[in-house]
Amino acid sequence: MVVRLKDIARDLGVSTVTVSKVLRGRTDIGQKTRERVLKRMNELNYQPNMLARALAGGRSYAVGLVVPDLVHPFFGEFARSLAGALRSEGLVLVLASSEEDPDIEEQEIQTLLTRGVDVLLVASCRPAMHPPKALTETTTPVVLIDRHFPNLPMNFVGTNDLMVGELAGRHLAGIGRRRIAHIGGRGISPTADRLKGFQRALAAAGLELPKEYVVTRDRFEESGDATGYHAMQELLSLREPPDAVFCYNDLSAIGAMDAAMQAGLRIPHDIAFIGCGNLRYADYLRVPLTSVDQSSHRLGDMAAKRVLDLSTGVAGAPQTLRLEPRLIVRKSTVV
Question: Taking every pair of C-alpha atoms in the chain, what is the biggest distance, in angstroms?
């Protein structure tokens, strides 16, 4: 026999609204009542009928998220924080990876939209001036994550990437480095903004960023360490190699440091490195990595709040929400 919410409510002498609120994790229910309801649900092995709930409310109670790489620590931590915040409100997060392939990304976006997610979040692998076609045509609320499209008026949650570059540039110039290079990405908005902020900080310190000191590559999320390693080898082949490098993310910085150490350089004595992301293992590397912290868990919480507004139809005009980054100094730049 199928157990219904009203059966549990009748057994406990409470309203079906109260039982429903407990099921959705609402916080306006007393702890004792919550415990009684959860205990009875467990006794009866109650399984909520999500399809019936969706049909009754006109919502799927599902939120889609498409990222370039599910294994990358930044997106993994972001998804974990986002899922936790949504779970407490009775929403489920459906994950998909584009594998940094625009065609796969378009397919995954279309699949999630077809399945009727209430809100779709996308960290696109596409160039900043070429958004996915499905995003420009859908009526489903969309939140762009980490990467934005300047000509697409949509909700955006991310980091102030101009400040990321500025923090890195100011720090390296401030510790006396003068031949400062950058290993960056191509096309997507964070790469352009970080480079712009970096150039601005170096110019303020009276330093130039020669063209040969900027090495750009694709697919930083999927194979960042290998990409950073080979990019650093290119910089080390210059007649006058750099004495400091700002890397697009922590994975590329780890690969770049490996190339430098294999070349016999001492970090930070001969060359200093800064990454971006402040991933949880950065403090445990052979040379702990100085990094610009993007606060991925805070981004997840911020995105969840925007999703909840969008899913209930009270969101208003698109919003741009940016977190201010902070520099975490470790031994890859300062002894």
Answer: 81
Neighbouring CB atoms inside 10 A of 274's CB total 29
Residues 6+ apart with CB under 8 A from 15: 9
Closest CA relative to residue 301, chosen from 164, 68, 145: 145
Check if the beta carbon of residue 323 is closer than 8 Å to that of residue 292: no
Q: Which of 94, 90, 116 is nearest to 24 (CA)?
A: 90
- Taking the chain (335 residues) in runs of 10, the rounded mean pLDDT of each run is 80 88 78 89 75 56 91 89 90 92 93 91 89 89 92 92 98 97 90 95 96 87 82 97 96 95 97 93 87 93 94 84 96 94
Residue with tokens 């991310």: 158
Kindly give the pairing relationship between strand 214-216 and strand 180-184.
parallel
Nearest to 189 by CA among 144, 242, 136, 244: 144
